[in-house]
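User: Working on a comparison across species. This one is TetR/AcrR family transcriptional regulator from [Mycobacterium] wendilense. Can you predict its structure so I can line it up against the others?
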Amino acid sequence: MSTSASSASGDDAVLLGDRRAPSKGERQRRAILDCLPELLSRRPIGELTVGEIAAAAGVRRSGFYFYFESKYAPLAVITAEIWTELMSRAQYFARGADESVRDFIGRTGDIALGLWRDHEGVLTASVQAIPLDEQMATLWDEWNQQLADVIANQVIEDQKKGVAHPVSDDVRGLITMLLEMTMHVFYMDRLRKNDPEQTHATREMVLAIWLASAWGIPNAP
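Assistant: Here's the predicted structure for TetR/AcrR family transcriptional regulator from [Mycobacterium] wendilense:
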């Protein structure tokens, strides 16, 4: 079989070592996605227009609509990329054999906080879009459930070992609610532009709630 036959999976396949330059369409689409975080660092999504996004990306307004049906669509794509980054670290949401529950909660909390710091504008806009865009609302529900399943499995495992004593028998429901709470609290922290000291105090309060609710551990040294 010739080597060219390995590309039979489709024209869109990108093989290792492929040096083809991105097409004009791919470059334009990526330009729209890449300009959005900078725009969102200065203005909320509700104030941005499609025309402004298109101009920043260097494409025509009609070109924007060729790729995306609304200004929330590229926002959803970027948020999905951030979420993929988070879920690629899913193994870090399992407690190590020699790791205390407090250390585990602190470590995973810092992963989430780091994500909010690194992608502040996009994540803030994404949360603001939840009541305005059905797709965004659905995506956040799906993402939270994915993460809830991972963390709930850890709590259930700890429960079997007598380490965790969750306040509800519905562990997955409890974790889902705690994740939604955490999302809102971190969102408000970034929206208010809290200084590092205030953010640290927020972190400590959130971790205390997680410890008490999911593991039944009081916030004591």
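For your comparison, note: The chain has two domains: 21-67, 72-215.

User: Helpful, thanks.
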